[in-house]
Amino acid sequence: MGAWFGKSKKQPSRVTEYDKSILQLKQQRDKLKLYQRRIEQSLEKDKELARKLLRDGKKDRAKLLLRKKRFQEQQLEKTDTQLDNMERLVHDLEFSQVEMQVLDGLKSGNEALKKIHDVLSVDEVERILEETREGVDKQR
């Protein structure tokens, strides 16, 4: 019963703002790809319809469909540009995350080196090397 009336202890989320932003970018990329597919399908349908209209002698309607086709092709080019930008942004974000991990590794390595240098002074290292040489000389 204590768990029902007591405060629940929530675990902190392991999903960071960085992860959320990457997910949003990838979702938006997928939506753009779907939009492109719809435009491409519409282009195919309009192309077939324009051919049929030309066969039926309705040139004005066919011209209208060709204008619509040009507009949709421009939209496809714009979405291609947006997709390229989004892919570049996702790549840059992921690479910056890797760079941060490398920097964190370098920081911890530097801290470990400082601790080692604090423990071992130059005199201490020279003394150990001298003792090692003496030990080798005794063995000979």
From TrEMBL:
Keyword Membrane: yes
Cellular localization per UniProt: Endosome membrane
Entry superkingdom: Eukaryota
Keyword Transport in annotation: yes
Alphabetical list of Gene3D superfamilies matching this protein: ESAT-6-like
Keywords: Endosome, Membrane, Protein transport, Transport
Predominant localisation class: membrane
PANTHER family to which the protein is assigned, alphabetical: CHARGED MULTIVESICULAR BODY PROTEIN (PTHR22761), CHARGED MULTIVESICULAR BODY PROTEIN 6 (PTHR22761:SF5)
Family listed: Belongs to the SNF7 family.
Annotated protein name in UniProt: Charged multivesicular body protein 6
Top-level taxonomy: Eukaryota, Metazoa, Ecdysozoa, Arthropoda, Hexapoda
